[in-house]
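Something for you to look into today, if you have time. Could you write out one complete protein record for me, on any chain you like? Leave the record below and I will have a look.
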Amino acid sequence: MGYEDAGWRPGRPGAGACALLTRALDGVPSDPADALYVRALASLSRAMAFTGDADQARAAGEQALAHARELGDERLLADALQTMLWHCLAPGSVSRQRVMAGELARLARGSGDWEALGMAAVFQSGVAYMQADPKAWSDANADLDRAVRGSGQPFLAYIRGCDDYAHAFVRADFAAAEKIAEDLLELGRSFGTDDTEGPYGLQMFMVRRETGALEAARPLVQAAAADGTWEPGLLALYTEFGLADAARGLLHRLLDKLDAASGRPAPWGQWTAVLVFLAEAAVALRDRGAARRIRPLLAPFAGLQLMAGHFVAVFGPADTYLASLDSVLGRHESAELLFERALAQDQALGAVTHRAATLAAWATHLRVSGCSSRRRLQELSDEARRLAVGAGLARVMHMLEGDAESPAGLTAREVDVLRLLTRGSSNRDIARRLKVTENTAANHVRSILTKTGAANRTQAALMALSRRWVDN
């Protein structure tokens, strides 16, 4: 049990622990009244979970948990609950994980077990994000802070840092997110044999693709394809760089591998990231065949937010991705409903990054589907662009380029405003001509200056005329 307890913290595969514990349990009578036997059974269930043997792990864990309840031993029950929480956080188990984590937290507070309280808070925070519950997320963080101080465990401090990274990311504070990721890498190196470079790489990828800083990696992509790189991550790079042929080939190879495996070949910690990168590639390529194969894999996450590992990467509502896949498949009514639901989650969580991405994806859907409501398309695009400009979301701005009607990425309404600027119109004139408020006219002018890089309205007008963006 000591060997297994030392192995799960860095996420090591549990095969060695499984072998040791199986032999040990085979050598003693099965005695549900023996606390040591129950504890060993619980330990075996967690080791099985880390080998990917989900069904056997769950069966052994449930058995240990039932025995612990029958014995009425709260310390034993807390141990069994901790091992059960480390089983896969699959879509269908999220609500139960929340209940078990709440029970563990109550037991830990009663016994003063800081480490158990920390474990409960780890899962409460993850579930709170997945269910878009900001209050529960805040409460879990408060417990995790207490556990870090009370236990002195570096592992809990690392997990708490991942939580801080996610908070910074969703509020679009990318400088803070990058600094936290750097600090976590250093903390992870202090663990010795632990390898936190993989999580760090994904954290930095997420930040840099939002801020438009991925371009420096473009020359490395060709080399990465030949050195055993994690293929879903390589697919994400192909998608971001617009390498359509390479993305299409790798997308279908990965889907064929999934078919051959007849299931989920990646650990749950990676699986959500795999699904997101597959879905993003299928949507970017408008590949109906791939979208048709990916959607059933993503469907169990409907209504939840997607998270890889414990806040290694946060992707926002699964409904945004499902809606985009439905858009590719021509299921427009379903897409609209899913986008509405996703946007409500973004608003509930106060997630600037997720909200901007949902708005941009919805606008893209309306544009490619030939939506007749130009006004609705413009409203979504303008709101997404407002958030993107304010937060420096280069990726969202790139998503909105398809809505542009000029080389500067201006919307149709902004082109109208720019045309009036070339005629010397004031904001009051623009408002009267376009039947909008002066404040709205001023906002359009500011957006035009931001997108064109012009210092003032006169320079923007001259630029538009010289480059023939508008007819005067």
Remarks:
- Strands lie at 305-308, 313-317.
- The mean pLDDT is 88.
- Residues 404-472 form a domain with the Arc Repressor Mutant, subunit A fold (CATH 1.10.10.10).
- The two ends are 79 Å apart (CA to CA).
